[in-house]
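2 proteins. here.
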Amino acid sequence: MRSVREVAKLYRVSPATIYRWINAGHLKAVRHGKPYIPGSGAPEGGAIRIPDSELEYVISEEVA
């Protein structure tokens, strides 16, 4: 599992681009850590991680 920052460095793009790819469905990601509690007023918790297997898939799609 890699952080958004690590994936951004790997692809030589900004972390904002990685977040856009996640939101658009181009990259699958999971949230680890503190859970979000609706109605608590706190922001969503946990760190976003991208599985290495997802990166291998995206790289193979770019080559094809």
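next one coming up
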Amino acid sequence: MSADVARHVQLAIVATEEGAAAAFAINTEVLKEDIAARSISLNRLAGWRKPRSG
């Protein structure tokens, strides 16, 4: 019986690690999209305040 418990604990640990890895990957992609969107917004804002040449 203790071997069964140990096996279940190991499965829970592996599942937790896989969930954490998936959450990290999702968060990384969301941050990339957010940074890209903010960069576009900042570029548009900078375009409105572009100094006149000449």
